[in-house]
Amino acid sequence: MEAANSAEAAPTSDDKLTLIAIAALACILQDVLHEGLGHGVTAWLSGAHTVTMSTVGLQSDISTRWISANGTLVNLIFGAIFWILLRWPKRYQPPTFYFLLIAMAGNLFTGTGYFLYSGVFNFGDWAAVIRSLQPNWLWRVGLIVLGAVTYYASMLLVASRLNEFRSVSNSPRVRALAWTPYFTDGILAGIAGLLNPAGLFYVLASALPSTLGANAGLWSLPSMTRMWPTREKPIRPIRRSPAWIASGAIGSLFFILVLGRGITWSR
């Protein structure tokens, strides 16, 4: 009887609120790594006297190629770290594995997507990196090619790990796991960006494109997982977790109300 009751109590699908909380935390981590550790720390070590970090971007009183480039490079480094950690899925509980997966996706997609975005629109971090390099059009073409190749490679890496959740009969589950972060990240970035003192332009030109555009690969992941065999024993459903939900709520409030308005350091 106890075994039967336990089976009845076991969840048969992933808890949506927990998925949203995990996706929010992964989004926040990616943004802090990009703006804070990448751009911010580089600017500070380069001798900047004033640094303002927000969810939309980083402003400092100096500008160098390394400051512009290091946001992306930090994302790529951490994307690689998360990929290495995910090579042993059985080490983690389902929510932890999902967090590492979405964190890897966010960092890889942002890092590789910036090459493509800057090459096409001549705007953003890597447009600043190549601005004085000639012929500029050739450098932009190089960024577009590099971005397209590395972005697709990133999608393959993420899809291979997402496949750990897939069995023959649960394609809707994989879609929910892949698409929930897209909407969560877009809403979170949009709300936080509206509070930014830099104005609405940077929300439309930076916050939303870098989030919705960079994460567009999430839409294709469910179909890409079919390139790998289905799992006889996929990762168990993600149960409702008050700890993850509380952490996601606290992190989101900090992201919107504090980082959304910007934090300034001076010396």
Care to describe what's here?
- This protein has 267 residues and is mainly alpha-helical.
- It has one domain (19-47, 55-266).
- Helices cover 67% and strands 4% of the residues.
- It has helices spanning 2-9, 16-45, 65-85, 94-121, 125-129, 136-162, 171-194, 200-213, 221-224, 242-259; strands at 50-53, 58-60, 263-266.
- A three-stranded antiparallel beta sheet has the order 2-1-3, with helices on one face.
- Strand 1 and strand 2 (58-60) form a beta hairpin.
Structural class designation: mainly alpha
Quaternary? single chain
The main pleated sheet reads as: 3 strands, antiparallel
Q: Kindly report the average pLDDT value.
A: 91
CA distance, first residue to last residue: 67 Å
Q: How many structural domains can be distinguished in the coordinates?
A: 1
Instruction: Give the C-alpha Rg.
Output: 20 Å
Proportion of helical residues: 55-70%
Q: Any idea what the shape is?
A: globular
Short description:
By secondary structure, this protein is mainly alpha-helical.
Give the secondary structure arrangement, pairings included.
Blueprint: H1 2-9, H2 16-45, E1 50-53, E2 58-60, H3 65-85, H4 94-121, H5 125-129, H6 136-162, H7 171-194, H8 200-213, H9 221-224, H10 242-259, E3 263-266
Antiparallel strand pairs: 1-2, 1-3
